[in-house]
Specification:
Order of helices and strands: EEEHEHHEEHEHEHEEEEEEEEE
Number of domains: 2
Strand content: 25-35%
Number of helices: 6
Bound molecules: zinc ion
CATH class of the largest domain: Alpha Beta
Largest sheet: 13 strands, mixed
Number of strands: 17
Structural class: alpha/beta
Helix content: 10-25%
CATH topology of the largest domain: Aminopeptidase
Length: about 325
C-alpha cells in the first residue's frame, strides 16, 4: 500500500519565467521504455523574489556515481530558505535507468543496442535510438532552464577513484573563477570532448564545470561535505546566497594534460602509489599478479606528474585503467 504522503507531481519542463517564487519539487518525464512507462528525473527549484542569475546543478548522468547524487540531494535539502536572489535548479539524478542497475550507462530492452554512455551523446538525437532520444530530451529540458552557470557532478567510475577533481576550460573566464572557488584538490584545464555534457554546454554559451567527487559506487561523506562547501562558495560568489565562510582560497594542483597507464594483461593489479602522490618518470605504479598470486607485470610511470586517479578494484582486464597522471604539457 502506498503511504499517505501525497506523491510529488510531474511537470513537463522547467519554465523559470512563469514559475512562482519559492521551493518546488517535481518529476520530469523524458522518454518511454518498451512497456510504455516513463523514465522520469527529479528536479528541485529554488526561485527567489529578487532577480539574479540561475545556477544549474546536475548529477548522476552516470548511474554508478553515488557521491555526486548525494551531494546534489544534500544541497537540495540544505539550501531551503537560503537562496536570497536568482534561481537554483538541481537535477540530482539524471540517469535513474543506470542507477537501478548499479551501472554507469543507460540500458535498453533492445537486444541490438549496447549499454550507452550518455555523457558522450549530447546534444542527442530526438529521432535516434532510445538512449539518443534520452540525451535529446535531457538537452531540451536543460536548455529550457536558460541557466547562466552549470556545475555537473560526477565521480570516477565503479572500481576507480578520484580526489575532488575539476575538469574546466579555463579559457572561459567564468569557468576559471568558479573553479577556484570549489577548492578542489586537482584541476585539469582542457577544452573537453565532443558529446560530453560540460563541453556541449560551454559550446552553447553556458559556462559549465565537471566536478568529480571521489570514487564510484561509494558514499564518502568527507568529500561530499567539501563539494557542498565548494558549491556554496560558488553560489555566494554569484550573489545567490550569503557567504558562509571567508577562509583563504588554496589553488588546486593543476595541469593541462593527463596520461593514462592501462593494464596490458588480465590479473590482479595492486597500487604502489596513492592519489595525490608526486611521482617521477620510471617510478613503479602498480604490480599485477595472476590468479595464483605470481607477479606477471610491473607498471612504471611514463612521465612525471601527480596521481589523479587510481584503480581501487584490483581485478583488471587488458586495457583497464590503472592510473591517471595529471601533468603539464607545453606542446
Ligand atoms: Zn561520470
Amino acid at each position: 500500500m502506498p503511504d499517505a504522503t501525497p506523491p510529488i507531481k510531474d511537470c513537463n519542463n522547467i519554465d523559470l519565467a512563469t514559475l512562482p517564487m519559492g521551493h518546488h519539487q517535481c518529476w520530469i518525464p523524458l522518454v518511454q521504455n518498451g512497456i510504455g512507462n516513463w523514465t522520469k528525473v527529479p528536479a528541485t527549484i529554488f526561485k527567489s523574489r529578487i532577480p539574479g542569475p540561475t545556477l544549474l546543478i546536475t548529477a548522476g548522468i552516470h548511474g554508478d556515481e553515488l557521491n555526486s547524487v548525494v551531494t546534489a540531494q544534500r544541497i537540495a535539502r540544505e539550501w531551503q530558505g537560503k537562496v536570497t536572489s536568482g534561481c537554483v535548479v538541481i537535477l540530482p539524478l539524471l540517469n535513474p535507468n543506470g542507477m537501478l542497475r548499479h551501472s554507469r550507462h543507460f540500458h535498453t530492452a533492445d537486444g541490438d543496442l549496447a549499454p550507452y554512455n550518455l555523457n558522450r551523446g549530447f546534444p542527442g538525437n530526438a529521432e535516434g535510438t532510445l538512449p539518443e532520444r534520452y540525451c535529446a530530451a535531457l538537452w531540451k529540458l536543460i536548455q529550457g532552464i536558460k541557466a547562466d552557470y552549470c556545475l555537473d557532478l560526477h565521480t570516477q567510475t565503479k572500481g576507480m577513484a578520484y580526489p575532488l577533481f575539476i575538469y574546466a576550460d579555463k579559457s572561459i573566464p567564468e569557468c576559471a573563477s568558479i573553479a577556484t572557488l570549489i577548492q578542489a584538490d586537482m584541476l585539469l584545464d582542457d577544452l573537453g570532448q565532443i558529446g560530453v555534457f560540460e563541453t556541449e554546454m560551454n559550446r552553447a554559451g553556458i559556462p559549465t564545470l565537471t566536478l568529480e567527487i571521489g570514487a564510484g559506487k561509494r558514499h564518502q561523506p568527507h568529500l561530499v561535505t567539501r563539494a557542498v562547501e565548494g558549491i556554496s562558495r560558488v553560489a555566494a560568489h554569484l550573489g545567490l546566497m550569503h557567504q558562509t565562510t571567508s577562509s583563504p582560497l588554496i589553488p588546486a594542483q593543476s595541469g593541462n594534460a593527463v596520461t593514462d597507464v592501462r593494464a596490458v594483461k588480465g590479473g590482479f593489479a595492486l597500487g604502489r602509489v596513492e592519489i595525490g602522490d608526486n611521482i617521477s618518470a620510471g617510478q613503479i605504479l602498480f604490480e599485477q599478479f595472476d590468479s595464483f598470486g605470481n607477479l606477471i607485470e610491473t607498471y612504471c610511470a611514463p612521465i612525471a606528474g601527480i596521481v589523479a586517479s587510481i584503480a581501487e578494484d584490483p581485478m583488471r582486464e587488458p586495457g583497464g585503467l590503472l592510473v591517471r597522471i595529471l601533468h603539464s604539457d607545453t606542446n
